[in-house]
Amino acid sequence: MTRTLTLLLALTLGSAATAEQVTVFAAASLKTALDEIATAYEATSGDTVVLSYAGSSALARQIQQGAPAQVFVSANTAWMDVLQEDGLIAEDTRADLLANRLALVAHGPAAPVEITPDLDLAGMLGEGRLAMALVDAVPAGLYGKQALTTLGLWDSLSGSVAQTDNVRAALALVSLGEAPFGVTYRTDALADPGVSIAGLFPEDSHDPITYPMAALAGQEALAQPFLTYLSSPEAAETFETHGFAVLGD
What CA–CA distance (Å, rounded) separates 24 from 211? Predict the structure, then answer.
């Protein structure tokens, strides 16, 4: 065996020995952007990223039940607070990563509307349904119900809501034409050519849409390199391309 070949084998074996796998539980609305970011991270680090997407409530409950993961990225602060109170996250790793906007999305092209208390959304639906993530558990559904309630529209719409396990499932109902309208994040609408944004909800109609991230307790060593990358300029550019607002320190 030549000296060069021996050196190459040593480098290859050394890289394989130090490569790590990080499992990330992330809100479903992050999928398009986070898939790209994880691929870029794998290329630069040599590590493997396993991404598990669902509604933040479902992911938080899985973590409470002992699901193996290193990183959690929630679509609201409330579910991260729950895990923090349970002692399940490493507190010194928690940071607010992103912000988003809440949108009324329509199947196919739609004329823009101003979302105010005077909007006849029930009339716009007709016999159709309003697709939303679970309104009492999933962040997008919680924000959506809060906004519609603030605007005085919820009572006229509650009987017409088709609830789904997460916001991407609600988006799919609208994209496929199974619901004429839905309430999702702006970023979801930008990711699906089958829908259009009819309007954005007033930001003061609901709590701020904030995405916190953190390492799970005892997983800091595996989690921290990926958390650091999520805060990098490279990741920020990808998030912004997909419509998120990147939050600073």
Answer: 14
Which amino acid belongs to residue 203? E
From first to last of its 249 residues, the chain has per-residue pLDDT tens of: 444 333 333 334 444 446 899 999 999 999 999 999 999 999 999 999 999 999 999 999 999 999 999 999 999 999 999 999 999 999 899 999 999 999 999 999 999 999 999 999 999 999 999 999 999 999 999 999 999 999 999 999 999 999 999 999 999 999 999 999 999 999 999 999 999 999 999 999 999 999 999 999 999 999 999 999 999 999 999 999 999 999 975
DSSP letters for 24-64? EEEEGGGHHHHHHHHHHHHHHH--EEEEEEE-HHHHHHHHH
pTM of this structure: 0.87
φ, ψ for residue 185, nearest 5 deg: -80, 155
Closest C-alpha among 211, 215, 218, 217 to residue 235: 211
Q: Are 60 and 166 in contact (CB under 8 A)?
A: no
Contact 196, 106 (CB under 8 A): yes
Torsion of CA 109, 32, 204, 107, to 10 degrees: 20
Instruction: State the sign of the Cα–Cα–Cα–Cα dihedral 19, 30, 172, 169.
Output: positive
Phi, psi (rounded to 5 degrees) for 156:
-80, -10
Return the structure tokens found at 135: 């309104």
